[in-house]
Amino acid sequence: MRAYLRPRTIEEAHEIQRTLKKKVKITSPKKAPHFIAAADAAFSDDFVFAAASLFGYSPLVHMEDAFAREKARFPYIPGLLAFREGHAIISAIGKLTVAPDLLLIDGQGIAHPEGFGIASHIGVILGIPTVGCAKSRLIGEYEEPGPVKGDWTYLYHRDARVGAVVRTRSFVKPLFVSPGHLIDIESFVEIALKCTSGFRIPEPLGAADRLSRKLRNDYSGRSPVLDK
Q: Mind listing the pLDDT tens digit for each residue in 25-44?
């Protein structure tokens, strides 16, 4: 895992992206997930605070949380987010006692300038279906979906479908989702809508976001125990 997340140079990071991109598979899952996990990260000084929240699916029930704290070893560079927070996120996911069938990541999947965002990166490394969920568009063109929850349109980049623009709550801004690995656009749109209730983003991702920010805010300035 470290070899795919700890590059020594920016050029090496791009080379890793090009290599792993070849492993991405966008396909319809054979069955609905039993467990869904979501992961997000927050930063304080040079530390990454990653959180993973696990939910049972259908019905959607919160089961457990896990987290990891690490020193950031890669600078913030647009398009290379996985190298800054991916190691901590995977460490947090690995601490869950139940392995998820599907991962939601705050970021992009194939709707990325290189076709390989953090959701694709983590999905390929872990070998499980993974989706990127973002509040704003990174690339692509789309038609505005209808105003009611459940309305959605495709997101296109260079004439290829790379994601969906989904109205997860009526009369609010849509969510931008893109498959990362081992799932297709249409399958996840259905799942995303079942995972949202009163909020814009899916509940598992909202839980991970709140936990990562709480960990960051509770940080007292003492050196945390670092994952090696």
A: 999 998 899 999 999 999 98
